[in-house]
Structures are given as C-alpha cells and as structure tokens.
Specification:
Layout (H helix, E strand, L loop, with lengths): L4 E2 L3 H7 E3 L2 H6 L9 E5 L4 E6 L7 H12 L3 E4 L3 H8 L14 H21 L3 H20 L4 H5 L8 H18 L8 H17 L9 H4 L7 H8 L1 H11 L5 H9 L20 H15 L11 H9 L6 H13 L4
Antiparallel strand pairs: 1-4, 2-5, 3-4, 3-5
Helix pairs in contact: 4-5, 5-6, 5-8, 6-9, 8-9, 8-14, 8-16, 9-13, 12-13, 13-14, 14-15, 15-16
Length: 338
C-alpha cells in the first residue's frame, strides 16, 4: 500500500476503508492497535498513515486518536479485512455498532466467531461456556431480527470440511435461512415471539450437543461400526437432551432440535422412532438441515456432495418433511448457489 492514498470522494473512500467508531477503538489495545490506521486529510480527501502495526502509540497519541475517532477522521483498510474479522470476532456485539461493514464482511465475522465459540463449547460443554455461546447467538439473532434479508449472506458461509463445530455452525446458518423462508407471521411480532426466534436459533446451532460426549474416534470412524459402537452413537440425541437442564437451556425449541433431528416422517429414525405429527416442526426442520449440511461437507467416511444434488436427494426422500426439504432448493436459489 502506498504511503498516501488520494480518493475521489468520501463514497470512494468507504468502498476501500472502514471508518472506526469509538466502540471499535475501545476494543483495540490502547497502545498497540492490531492493524494499520489512517487519518483523513479532509481538504483533499486523502488518507495519510497514522499508525503502523508493530509501532507503539504514546499516551498523548492515544488521546489524540480518541479525539480523531470522535471527529470521524480515522480509518482502517479493507485490505486488512482478515485481521479485522479475527479481532472483532472476539467482541461480537461490535458488529451491531459498525455501520460500515458490508453484509458479506459481517457474515465472515459471524462465521469466525461462532465457529470458535462452538469449538470451545463442544470441547467443554459446561454452563459457563454455554452462557458465552448463548450470548454470541443473541447478537446473531439481533442482527437477523433487524433485517431478515441478512440471512442470505450469512447462510452462504458454509464450511466445506466436517468437524462437530463446523457442522453445528453450518446447520445454524443454513437452518436459520430455511426457517426464515417459512417463518410464521407470529414470529414477526412482539417480544415474546422474539424470544421464540432466539430459541429456534439456539436449537439449530446446539442440536448436536450430545455428540460432544461421544468419543471423536467413534464419530469419525471410517470402518463399519460394531453393534455396540452404533448403539453408543444412536444415543447422542438422548444424551444431548439430558445435558440441556444442566446447561440451563431446557427450552421447547432447543429440546425438539436436540432430541428429534434424527427422527423420520415414517418412523424409521431414532432415538424414539416417532412418526408424522408426533415429530415437532422444529424436529422436522432440523432433520432436513442436519442431513443436508452433513452431505455437502467432506467427512472422513464420505465425500462431499454437490449442494444442488444433496437438496434434490432430500426433496425426493419421503423420510423428510417436504415443507422443509423442498425449501432447500429455494434456499439455494435465494442465496444464488444454483
């Protein structure tokens, strides 16, 4: 990057740089910010280097920087987007305060933050860590609640390789978009329904929590499972449902996702082999999303399927509710993945 950058207008500037808000500045290390900083010379719309990574700001410079930020004169380059994503993902609520982020950039931040948080939670599924993932998911739902159309960009952020955390995030991102496409009118009105909306999100992201108690070697085994091993694996929905009370997450929508995502319309699923109307809407939705997200990722024991082929396969399978399986094709069209 050159030492000076001449821009034609403020609009041109905002296409290539983020303007830093006081909230974002407060999240930086006070003396060693994590990325290069530029100051706007207003009379000629030119950005001049103010701070370079590796340097150290003095107390006086730090105070001056705060004033310049208040005046709207401090920017960072969008070329440093990966650094910015990593930084802001540790304080996820900042995305709600930064109006300069594009929807695509915000989606990158959510994917990075929620994947890291899910990894922490699935590695140590205790209430203290569950509270953290719940707090981050409430930021995610607040962002969606402000504009449901934002779900399209978020649902494009699909991990291509399977891990328990990546699968959970994929199911949450894709599942919320499919849910939004079939969203009942009552979910759009009032704080009580906003609470239900939050819990649907929790259920989709945490549906596989019981798998955290299944040994990794068994989850990823490439050889045929023995009868005993298979029985252990089939118990994960029941294990997950038992965990919810200890995690203070025993909400109907979350329970349904956790307990029913392997149930099938004709009664051939598990763990309870329930069928038809005995399966909740959330269980039916989560079953479709869980299968789709598994099919389109590279797993130790299976190659990734083309998303269109995976959605088509589920849409033609009578074991899945057509209200949701057919919405996968619509999801791919809406997010321009077909």
């Amino acid at each position: 990057m050159s030492e000076k950058r001449q821009l034609e207008s403020i609009e041109d500037l905002e296409e290539e740089y983020y303007q830093i808000s006081p909230d974002i500045l407060q999240s930086f290390n006070k003396f060693r910010p994590p990325l290069n900083i530029f100051k706007l010379k207003e009379d000629v719309v030119r950005l001049l280097p103010y701070y370079r990574v590796g340097e150290r700001l003095s107390k006086e410079q730090g105070e001056e920087l705060e004033t310049l930020v208040q005046d709207g004169l401090i920017f960072v380059s969008r070329a440093d987007h990966p650094v910015y994503v990593k930084h802001i993902s540790f304080q996820l609520d900042l995305v709600l305060m930064d109006r300069h982020l594009t929807e695509s950039e915000t989606a990158d931040i959510f994917q990075a933050a929620l994947t890291r948080r899910m990894e922490e939670f699935l590695d140590q599924p205790v209430k203290a860590v569950a509270d953290k993932i719940q707090a981050d998911l409430m930021v995610f739902t607040e962002y969606l609640w402000q504009d449901f159309n934002r779900g399209k960009a978020l649902s494009r952020r699909v991990h291509s390789r399977h891990s328990l955390a990546c699968h959970s995030v994929n199911c949450g991102m894709v599942g919320m978009q499919v849910f939004l496409q079939t969203l009942p009118e009552e979910y759009r009105q009032g704080p009580k329904n906003r609470q239900a909306f939050d819990r649907v999100c929790l259920g989709l992201f945490l549906h596989d929590v019981g798998m955290s108690k299944i040994p990794a070697f068994l989850r990823d085994k490439t050889q045929t499972l023995s009868s005993e091993e298979r029985q252990k694996l089939l118990k994960h929905p029941l294990i997950g449902a038992e965990m919810l009370a200890k995690l203070d997450l025993k909400f109907p929508e979350v329970e349904q996702c956790v307990l029913e995502h392997h149930e099938r319309v004709g009664g051939s699923g598990y763990p309870r082999k329930i069928a038809g109307a005995d399966i909740s809407d959330m269980g039916l939705l989560c079953a479709v999303v869980d299968s789709y997200c598994a099919m389109i990722t590279e797993r130790p024991y299976a190659k990734a399927m083309d998303p269109k082929a995976a959605a088509g396969s589920l849409g033609a399978d009578p074991k899945y509710d057509p209200r949701y399986s057919k919405q996968l094709v619509q999801y791919l069209m809406n997010t321009r993945q077909m």
